[in-house]
Structure formats: structure tokens, C-alpha cells
Amino acid sequence: MRTTTAVLATAGILFALTGCSSDTADPTACKAAMSKQADEAIAAGEAAEEGQRPQACEGVDAETLQRIAGELISEQASKAAEDALPSAEPTPAGITDECRAWIEDELLDASDAIDGTAGNSVCGDLTDAEMDQAIEDVTNSLTEQGGTVAP
Fold this sequence. Notes:
The chain has 151 residues and is mostly helical. The chain is built from 6 helices and no strands. It folds into 2 domains: 2-84, no CATH class; 97-144, no CATH class. It is elongated, with a radius of gyration of 25 Å. Mean pLDDT is 76; it is low at 17-22.
């Protein structure tokens, strides 16, 4: 819900900027200035004030300003959607050296399985997907180093 509010607030601020002008300004600089202003408005949330036309947009015609505003709104909506969705690939960030060493030991021992209970105590709060990814990463690393992983 906050994401929708932020995108709509950004839209309101950006469309407030789209008054008439001449053709002398740089649309790229204008878009950068409008993007910065939109980011600031999103960061301010409901406390954001209505924006004014950035100086870099002086001279940019209304049609170009509307196009830029539409692009920025689309980019912000896409980013908000990406941020709202869970990552498709687990990220093994935060794997400690102790956890990595435990995984290596489990892969290299003579057993045919990994003791997940022991892994929970060593690797802590990794999700199942993160643990699976960590095991895959260590397996790949061992393989690249010429190690032999137990079947």
C-alpha cells in the first residue's frame, strides 16, 4: 500500500511540473533533475510537498515533460514491484566461514547425506533455500578447486 501511495505521490509531483515552455533546455538533464526530485518526494513519503519545476527543465516543452514524467512513473512502478516481490534466487549472503567449513566437511565426508540438524546449529538462521544455495556454491567451489565431493 505504501508503494502505491509513493508512486501516486510521485505522479502528482511530476505532473505538477509539466507546464508550458520553450524548446531550449536539455531533456536528459531535466529527466535527471525530475528523477532526483521524485526520489526525494518518495523518501519524504506523505510529508512530501508539491514539487516545483526543476531549473534544468526550464525551456523543456510540455509534451516532453509529460513523456519524461510518464517514464519516471513507469520506472518507479517497476522498481516498486521488483522490491515487493521475493527474490527468485536465494542469496547466500551472510554465510559465515564456520558454516562454509561445515558444508565442506559434510560434502567431503564418507556419508551419503548432509546432517541438516547440525547445519542449523552451525549455519544459524539460513532459510532452506539459502542453505541449498550455500551447499550448491560450496560444491561448485570444491569442484572448481579439483576437490572430490562424496556421492
